[in-house]
Design goal:
The protein has five helices and no strands. The chain is an all-alpha fold and 98 residues long. It has one domain. The longest helix is centred in the N-terminal third of the chain and has 16 residues. The radius of gyration is 13 Å and the shape is globular. The relative contact order is 0.15.
Length: 98
């Protein structure tokens, strides 16, 4: 599997709010797949994922607003896959800013 291309798709999708909320959910599935293979990635690939993750944290509010149209945030996904819990991430960011 070409992880570099999957990582690039992940980053591109985060920057494209023209995609539907359902496609954003697919982006989160892609991120979960990368999480499962994280130990197999090169140092450069891991750095690129972290860069995209930081961007996702930066845009947590609009991502949440986009996804809430179709996604129930009562997820049973593990907390290590924090992107599935973007509602909690966004709430924590808002609390921290107070």
């Amino acid at each position: 599997m070409d992880f570099k291309q999957e990582i690039e798709f992940y980053g591109d999708d985060l920057k494209n709010f023209e995609i539907s909320p359902f496609e954003m959910i697919e982006t989160f599935h892609r991120r979960s797949m990368l999480h499962q293979h994280f130990e197999n990635l090169t140092a450069d690939e891991k750095a690129l994922i972290r860069e995209h993750d930081l961007y996702l944290l930066k845009i947590a509010q609009p991502v949440y607003e986009h996804l809430k149209k179709v996604y129930d945030f009562q997820s049973d996904k593990p907390v290590q896959e924090w992107w599935w819990h973007i509602d909690k991430v966004m709430n924590a960011k808002n609390e921290w800013r107070r």
